[in-house]
Amino acid sequence: MKRRTIALVLTFTIVAIQAYRVLEDSGLLTPLTPHFAGQCEPIEGLIGAEDITIDHARQYAFISADDRRANTAGKPALGAIYGLDLSDPKAKPHLLFKGLSKGLNKGADNNFHPHGISLYHGENGQRSLFVVNHPNSGQQQVNILDISDDNSIIHRETIRYPDLVSPNDLIAVGPSQFYVTNDHGFAPGSVMQVVEDYLGLPLSNVTYYDGTQGSIVATGLRFANGITATDDLKTFYVSQATGRKISVYNRDSSTGKLTKQSDIAVKFGPDNLEWDTKGNLWVAGHPRLFDFLGHTDDADNHSPSQVVKIDVNSTIPVVSPVYLSMGVDISGATVAAVYNGTIKKSTTNKGIMLIGSVFEPRILRCQL
User: Fold this and answer.
1) In terms of Cα–Cα distance, which of 176, 45, 155 is closest to 100?
2) What would the pLDDT profile of 197-240 be if each residue is shown by its tens digit?
3) Which of 19, 95, 353, 357 is a Cys-bridge partner for 366, taking CB atoms 3.0 to 4.6 Å apart?
4) Looking at the structure, do residues 40 and 189 belong to the same domain, yes or no?
5) Summary mean pLDDT of the chain
6) What is the rounded average pLDDT of the residues 147-174?
């Protein structure tokens, strides 16, 4: 009887510790105080602008958007890539790429549902947009889209490989080479994905495609999400949404392997990562992960959104709070892309911040 009692006590203790850990990691125990020193205006018409990246030299933003609720509800709607002129405060996003359904972009995949994107600058000024794509066929893939001088897009290549299980975001490092985060170790739709999330299992990873084949180069992550790298491609940053941190890696350029260096703790579930021209890392994400799950099920359930700026060049990285809302203006923020350049007819040069999200029918354009 004594052994049984001890076993029950141990079991209860383990369950209680795990429950507390889940609550803490979800952000439920962290008090939230909305703040932002600037002004934001909504830009309507973009549904599910999950990722945004900026071509700073050309003062231009590329936006990855997909109506995920429509697709889940059995009303298929192709995702799209939009463009936005950042030098003009009155500019509106315009369609660049939407598969073949409208007769656009010969060679593109009909099943175009974009997720994370990465802009690659090659030799002779060539630019390419690398896109994580979740086609209806279920075969996860990366599309490489070449960009012309007028920012029109032509599909060049579709890449698939076995380790591309549950891709989320990516960073291009060559004309056909890239790193991708798998946010789960199991395929979408499987029961084990749910188990991973609620138990906080570190089963997600980072894969590397060397132009010929893919392989896993970093493991032990909890919902690996955004990924980016320094300009010299020697240091990589990977956000862990349920781990509430950003992991820093050293890269072996000869093998592509990533070696863990350190972690940067944040008080929310970090999503995508973007650089500004001053070398700061901007991170958007979810302060309350359970609220985000509620927002996933119902658009009327608001989910808080948060943005921080990280000075990674300090001896100890400095995390500065920038923006936090309870989700009324935009719920489930996933990306904050900042432009520091000149803006026509603007009275300030402090820059603008574009905030995107998973489901909302808008992005925010914020004056910093």
Assistant:
1) 155
2) 888 899 999 999 999 999 999 999 999 999 999 999 999 999 99
3) 353
4) yes
5) 89
6) 96
- The answer on 359 and 238 residing in a single domain is yes
Catalytic residues: 115
230-235 contacts, C-beta under 8 A, 24 or more apart: 233/173, 235/261
Chain centroid offset of residue 311 CA:
19
Task: Note the pTM of the prediction, 2 decimals.
Answer: 0.90
* Phi, then psi, of 297 in degrees rounded to 5: -80, -30
- Predicted pLDDT at 19: 45
The pLDDT of residue 71 is 83
Of all residues in the chain, what percent carry a pLDDT higher than 90? 75
Helical residues (DSSP H) of 110-213, grouped into ranges: 191-199
Q: Are residues 155 and 267 in the same domain?
A: yes
pLDDT at residue number 123:
86
First to last CA, the chain: 65
Residue range(s) defining the domain that contains residue 16: 1-30
Whether residues 46 and 21 share a domain: the answer is no
CATH (domain of 102): 2.120.10.30
Q: Are residues 12 and 65 in the same domain?
A: no
Q: Are residues 24 and 53 in the same domain?
A: no
d(CA 229, CA 251) in angstroms, rounded, equals 10
Q: Do 293 and 216 belong together in one domain?
A: yes
CB of 185 within 8 A of CB of 175?
no
Q: What is the C-alpha separation between 184 and 239, in angstroms, rounded?
A: 13
User: What's the longest Cα–Cα distance across the chain?
Assistant: 80
Instruction: Judge whether residue 86 has pLDDT over 90.
Output: yes
Same domain, 18 and 148: no
Residue 43: half-sphere exposure toward Cβ, Cα within 13 Å: 24
Residue 25 is inside which H or E element, if any?
A: helix 2-26
Q: Give how many domains the chain has, as a whole number.
A: 2
Tokens of 257: 């392997």
- In degrees and rounded to multiples of 5, residue 90 shows phi and psi of -100, 0
